[in-house]
Each structure stands twice: as structure tokens, then as C-alpha cells.
Amino acid sequence: MSDETVIDLHSDHYFMGEALRQATRAFQAGEVPVGAVVVHGGRILARAFNQVELLHDATAHAEMLAITQAESALGDWRLTGATLYATKEPCPMCAGAIVHARLARVVFGAPDPKAGAAGSALNLLQFPSLNHRCAITAGVREAECRALLQKFFAAQRAQARRAAATTRRRPE
After folding, report:
1. For residues 38 and 90, is the Cβ–Cβ distance under 8 A?
2. What is the full DSSP assignment across 84-101?
3. Between 88 and 162, where is the model more confident?
4. Cα 124–129–130 angle (5° rounding)?
5. Which residues, in sequence order, are CB contacts of 53 under 8 Å at separation 6+?
6. Can 31 be counted among the known catalytic residues?
7. What's the chain's average pLDDT?
């Protein structure tokens, strides 16, 4: 028997790694670092990262973009049996799209206590009166997902402080 590590290409850990790669792309583009991947039958149908600033579109969240790509790949708006992996808990807008697209499952990394709609602030993914409910797996690679978000927002705050300091030093 070998001591080599076997990578399960169908594991939540693996697919969250793919979402983290997308989140890193968002970070590099100056976007809030959220990445999403849609998987169906063990195959990645879609990969996306936040592009709100790049596209000047408030709806260009990673989850929304990934859902649209996956629907196109399947040729159907129903994503029955598919799983969405997101590095951050989906917001209400994304959760609504997830429910309407009939995704079977949502796996996310970092919770969002202020606006998370998969159980933190509210739970739209399992809301009793909606026509569909999703299974939820929270906290997959949470530390990595959270660290990327914290690094981004720390850099944003530092940049804002530098800009404020520069403005105060200018003669009137």
C-alpha cells in the first residue's frame, strides 16, 4: 500500500478548491473575492467569480454568473441534481436564484452573519412556503475562504485610509 495522498475529485473539499481559485481571480481583479462552481454528475458545468465592478452590474455575483453558465451548459433553466459551491454564504438575491433554478444542494465556505441567506441571517434556501428547498453544507474550507475575504477588506480599508490621509495633506 502506498503512502501517497489520494485526491477525491468528487469531494466537497476538491470543488471548494475550484471555487477558491475563482475567488482569487476576483481578488486580483479588485472584486470582492467570491467564487462559485456548479457541479452536476461529478462534472463542473460552470465556474465564475464576482464581477460587479468589472461589468458595472449589481447582479454579477459569482453565484448568479455560475448559475447562468450552468443553465446554458445543460440547455435548461432547471439545475435539478446540481450542487453549487460558493466561497461565501449566498446573499438573498443569489439564494432566490438558487431556489428558482432548483439546485439540489449548496455548499459554502465562509458564513455571512449580516446578509447570509443560507442560515446565518435568514434561510431562503429552505424557506417553507417556497416551491423548492436545497440541502445546505456550510463551513467547507471555511478558514481559507474567510482569510481571502479578510485580506481583501483589510486592503480596502488601508487604501481608504491612505486616500483620506492624502486628501487631508493637500493645501486648500
Report:
1. no
2. EEEEEPPPHHHHHHHHHT
3. 88
4. 55
5. 29, 30, 31
6. no
7. 93
Catalytic residue among 63, 89, 142, 144: 63
- pLDDT at residue number 1: 47
Radius of gyration of the chain, Cα coordinates, nearest whole angstrom: 18
Distances (CA, A) of 142 to 126, 139, 169: 21, 5, 41
**What is the bridge-based pairing of β-strands 105-110 and 83-88?**
parallel
73-108, pLDDT tens digit by residue?
Answer: 999 999 999 999 999 999 999 999 999 999 999 999
Q: Which residue has the cell 432547471?
A: 78
The grid coordinates listed for 105 are 444542494
Rounded Cα gap, residues 62 and 54, in angstroms? 12
